[in-house]
Amino acid sequence: MVRKRVFSLNYRFLIKWELMRKQIFSRIDSVLPRWAALLPYQVALLLLKLIFKVGLRIDVWNRNSTRCGSFIFGVSDLDLTLVHDGNCSPDFIRHILSISKKIFPFLGETNIFERHHLKYILSKMNSFELMRDPELYQHFSEQKMFSSAEKFVFIVRMLFSDADSLRNDPKLRQRKWLAHFKLIGLEIKGQSIDFEFVIKTLKELSFQSARIEESLEKWSQLRLENGFDIYHAHLGEGFGIMAPHCKLWFHKEEDTSYLKNLPPLEKEILLAQIDWEICGIYAQKMYLPKKQNKEHLGRLLRVRNIVQSMEEDQCLDLII
Q1: What is the β-pairing status of strands 59-63 and 78-84?
Q2: CA–CA gap between residue 294 and residue 235 (Å, rounded)
Q3: Out of 134, 227, 231, 247, which residue is the most buried by the measure of CB atoms under 10 Å away?
Q4: What would the CATH number be for the domain defined by 33-137?
Q5: For the segment 240-255, what is each residue's pLDDT rounded down to a tens digit?
């Protein structure tokens, strides 16, 4: 009991410290010229390009906020994309990135792709997430469909990764969320974007799916509780549809019959989430244990086959 209390106090302290750090850098960002705010990221990117492109013939570029202009100096990470021809050791790539992280602590997530896998992986990537990586988007020659399900899934993913910051200090997240909503075609004017506003928007994007709305409410309330475990929490059928990657499918006896006759939009949402997870596992497989990847992906493919029976494709071999 004492350990839990100490952990809770430490966690709250870290949250407050991180919030204070972001507020300080946000004030600095507000007075810096944009070129000066971007400069440290550009220096880091230039160095990494010299190492990877010149030294190893691996293409590297930035994506997300530093590419799209919605970054905040000292708060935003420098997210990268690497594309290689399969001729470089994964251990060596990880080693270079690990050293770079020590030099540039703002170095964020790095997605890694083999060039000859791009056509397959990009066909499964969420259109709006792909648009946050313009250079990668150029590698995809086919016409992308911008569906309602993809809009919903994109905003859900952005919310799950930003929920604490959005709830604790929404002022810091306005630039980021304005960019997210603009990407899916929603122009937000004269409205402060906070946690509740995003939840409300998701309900609208779900076209009033009753079970998704119910699960959104449960998640938004339960996630504030100490010891909240998203994988074991009882969040309803809607959560299995809107976030199948956050559910331990087949972990115990449970009813999955509701997946067999989903309405079209719910079906599209679930399949779009699984596709996002396939892309995510592939892009991060250098960092993740192979056994864990295989188990997680295997469960999701079983779910997909309940919803939409299809022959096993190349994804398991390709991604694992």
Answers
A1: antiparallel
A2: 25
A3: 247
A4: 3.30.460
A5: 999 999 887 776 666 7
